Amino acid sequence: MTPPAIDLRSIIPELVIAATAMATMVGGLFLPAGRQHPLRWLAALGTVVALGTTLAAGSSSSPAFAGMYVRDTLTRVLQATALVAVLLAQWLSGDYVERMRLDIGEYHALVLVAALGAMLMAASSDLIMLFLGLETLSIPLYVLAAFARTDPRSQEAGLKYFLLGAFGTAFFLYGIALLFGATGSTGFQALAEQAHAPKTFFRAGVALLTIGLAFKAAVVPFHFWAPDVYEGAPLPTTAYMSVIAKVGAFAAFVRVYMVALAALAAQWSTALAAISVLTMIVGNVAALRQTSIKRLLAYSSIAHAGFILTGVVAGSPAGASAVAFYLLAYTFMTLGAFGVVLMLHRRGEEADRIADLTGLAWRAPALGGAMTLFMVSLAGLPPTAGFLAKFYVFTAALDAGQTGVAVFGVLTSVVSAYYYLRVAYTMFTGQPSEDVGFAGGRWVTAALVAASAGVLVLGIFPSRVTAFVQQVGQVLR
Amino acid sequence: MPVLSILIFLPVAAAIVVVCIDRRKTDALYGVGLAGTLAVLALSAVVFFRFDPNQAALQFVQRTAWIPSAGVSYYVGVDGISLPLMMLTTVIMPLALLSAWGSIADRVKEFVLSMLVLETALLGTFLSADLVLFYVFWEAVLIPMYFIIGLWGGPRRSYAAIKFILYTMAGSALMLVAIITLYLHSGAQPGERTFDLIRLGRLPVAMPLQAWLFGAFALAFAIKVPVWPLHTWLPDAHVEAPTAGSVVLAAVLLKMGTYGFLRFLLPLFPQAALQFAPLLSVLAIVGILYGGIVSWAQPDVKRLVAMSSVSHLGLVTLGAFALTVPAVQGSLLQMVNHGISTGGLFLIVGVLYDRTHSRQLDDYGGVAALMPRLAPIALIVVLSSLALPGTNGFVGEFLILLGTFQTNPAYAALASSGVILSAVYLLWMYQRVMQGPVAVKERARMTDLTRREQWLFIPLIALIFWIGVYPSPLLRRSEASVRALVEQVTSHQSPVTSYRP
Questions:
Q1: Which of A155, A255, A332, B292 could bridge B421 with an S-S bond, Cβ 3.0-4.6 Å?
Q2: E strand or H helix at B77
Q3: How confident is residue A264, by pLDDT bands cut at 50, 70 and 90?
Q4: B247, part of any domain
């Protein structure tokens, strides 16, 4: 059976990314080790083209590929977010990958394939498609975590991530099997119909599905892998993983809960509300005493998963748009924060201790200013993207009557200010260590400028982006 | 011409210029900062004189959609309640910068930058009429202040800065929930909802909910004021902050809380305000007395001045919740007065500290003999702070006590004893520092005021006497708005619960 041409046209962005990934991989095989620089340009070009086609392509709410794939407004917004994340991550990581003598072609190919996975998850309208997307996202990330082959920490991180990730995927798959048993179909359409009168099987399937997604999103109590993996993986991988896995996982959360299981909202919203509160508390409290910036950002990413989940709990169109806005804001601020750390090195190694940042703002004021901006945004203080992102999710939660979740959300945000501001403060006090040096390049600088601009524009002139992400709400109506 | 927007964002424009200046040229950095704040002052003076005193509503209004889909607008305006605080901010900021010119010499660029950003955030807080816009500016104040305390402060600056920011953020976090809840109540459909302060003021909110929302707002403001027993962040922040930071903190930042009472708490939740006014009044009185007694016992002169703020702002709070026109007007005037006199006291402490590097009262004595120009200035500021007739403090305190007496004589009587306490500890402080035998160890360092330092005090002393003798330009401008506010709130008073002596 050949798919009709119209279907192929609807997946142009995915095709572009897949083609670029393959071209980069093949290029990496044939170009000599020292001359692989053009591959970075190729990867960036492919991402820009894919982003352009995503934005230019229209959206239709009717599924393609025999009900497997749908290019609706949700797909469009979340794919654009994923591609922005990829683009920034490529700029951030390029210099590091060259400096550490990692394989440039493979690295960029894997990054692109992971992005393809997240894009497919955003576009899925069938559990099989969602699973395919999840695996396409996860497997390159396992490899990327272990990408610094000679570093035992990286090997350990890769193995740990793989084992626990496979565990989560197994739950996910088992959930699909149960749901198939209950409905006789894997399509979201069938799920939505059965959700009105769910059988026990059906509920069990949904529960297992949740566990699988919670693993990917690093939501409490399935978050234990995150700090170790984040710490061990090479810095650019950590940065990329923290963002792209969230985009993919929360795309799935929106697809499964808010769209397919809307009829069951009364039941899952309570469970997710509890998980969300727990995640915000554990993430923010555990982050308080970290000394490694990677572990701090790992717990920060757990905490933010809790905040994003607040939007899902709302279950409303406003909640879905809030999730999309949050993911975009999170992309800019987290990648920005990682970018600042990527600009530094400690005797050629990663400068991943918070103490390494001591006094650096006086040697590089712009870097200090940028880090302050990202930390202020992560803490959710205005006038930054982080504030409006939280404002939107809490508004959606309160509108849905989830006052408790919103109250816990704002209070844990206050807790988070303590550790985020400590990082910014460290950069401005004390004597910088002799061991720490700058390893910036034009690409990282460009990424930092773009991330700072993103944080500020989303915080101060958000109306256009807000209007863009609000399309997401249409999918729920 | 959008005067208020220019006013709010002019400091940021100056900050951008500062960014472009070489960090070694400290005089140029301070010069640009000072020029920027003086330009803001000039512009605010224009607003002050063109302000129509007969109008109660917002003037110089500018309103454009900011985030249309979420009902948020960029909505600024000034009325009789925000006008005095706008003026206070624009007067204090150049003085604070000038005070730092001689004493802060390292990392000047970042310091001037922080001060300018702080001014924008403060002006935005006082001039916003949209709740989200207000909240954005309100929270934005914290970041520059955090760095001012944390980077240029005393030995325990790191602790004081984080305590300051966590304390105030914890209070305002729940206010954000309350703001959103209020918004959700303002209409059934997203398109009908609003964050517009004026429209929300007309929105009836049912009682249990109104009390909760009142509580959330009141907590945020009470921490900022600070109302006893939420004041524990204040002494630390003040003692550790550099002089310029202390001046802005005492003179302007604390007023954000008392301003919040008048601008948001009373008009948005009138029934709850009437119900909880006795509670807040009692807390205010406890603060007046407690602050006074604790100040009396302080061996540290900066801590003494800081604790005296708790006492003085208790009086301001009492006036705000007395809900009579004279008391509220007095409360508003006293916010300005406290800014001038306590700002002045912190400047004096800063001048002394620059010379001796000590804040202990025991290390001083007989300074008047060594610094003959500082002594009369300090006396005037102290007398203004303890509200001697003829100075600004008297007018404000008198109005508050008069207005409070109309509704509850007992409150007024208790508050008056706080006034006596303030005379005790302030005169005692003056006596121990300025008079008696010379007890300062290094006499050579005790040079008299420089020309720059004199210019710090000349404007303040002019204002002390101007408001003390002829307060009507300020009172006339605030009267219409205050009257409208008091009428709006008391109209909700049911005849059964109302208390009239």
A1: B292
A2: strand B72-78
A3: confident
A4: no
Q: Which residues contact B128 (CB under 8 A, 6 or more apart)?
A: B75, B76, B134, B137
The range of the structural domain enclosing residue B284 comes to: 270-492
Write the Ramachandran bin of A234: left for phi over 0, alpha for psi from -120 to 50, otherwise beta.
beta
The CA distance from A440 to the nearest CA of chain B, in Å, is 22
Domain that holds residue A176: 10-476
Measured between alpha carbons, how far is B48 from B80 in angstroms, rounded to an integer? 10
3-class SS letters over B168-210: HHHHHHHHHHHHHHHHHHCCCCHHHCCCEHHHHHCCCCCHHHH
| Contact between B119 and B11 (Cβ < 8 Å) | yes
Residue B491 pLDDT exceeds 70: yes
- Please, which residues bridge with residue B128 across strands? B76
CB of A288 less than 8 A from some CB of B:
no
Rounded average pLDDT over B45-57: 90
Q: Does B19 fall in a domain?
A: no
* A85-90 average pLDDT score: 93
Residue A424 belongs to a domain: yes
**From A405, which residue of chain B is nearest by alpha-carbon distance?**
B177
Q: Rounded to a whole number, what is the largest CA-CA distance in chain A?
A: 68
Band (pLDDT 50/70/90 cuts) for residue B500 is: very low
> Who among A387, A418, A428 is closest to B151 (CB)?
A428
Q: Give A187's strand partners.
A: A126
Write the residue in A372, A383, A395 that is nearest to B140 by C-beta.
A383
Residue A227 lies in a domain: yes
Q: Which of A322, A327, A292, A326 is nearest to A396 (CA)?
A: A322
β-partners of residue B360 are B300
Give the whole-angstrom CA distance, residue B113 versus residue B127. Answer: 21
Q: Do the Cβ atoms of A322 and A332 come closer than 8 Å?
A: no
pLDDT, position B203: 83
In a domain, A437, yes or no: yes
CB contact under 8 A, A466 and B173: no
Q: Count the domains in chain A.
A: 1
In a domain? residue B186: no
Residue A477, number of CB atoms within 10 A of its CB: 6
Task: Report which of residues B445 and B489 the model is more confident about.
Answer: B489
A2 domain residue, yes or no: no
* Residue partners of B430: CB distance under 8 A and separation at least 6: B378, B379, B382
Q: In chain B, how many domains are there?
A: 1
Residue A145 to residues A154, A219, A233, A299, A358, Cα–Cα distance (Å)? 6, 19, 5, 17, 28
Residue B30: inside a domain, yes or no? no
Distances, alpha carbon A188 to alpha carbons A133, A256, B53, in Å = 15, 7, 65
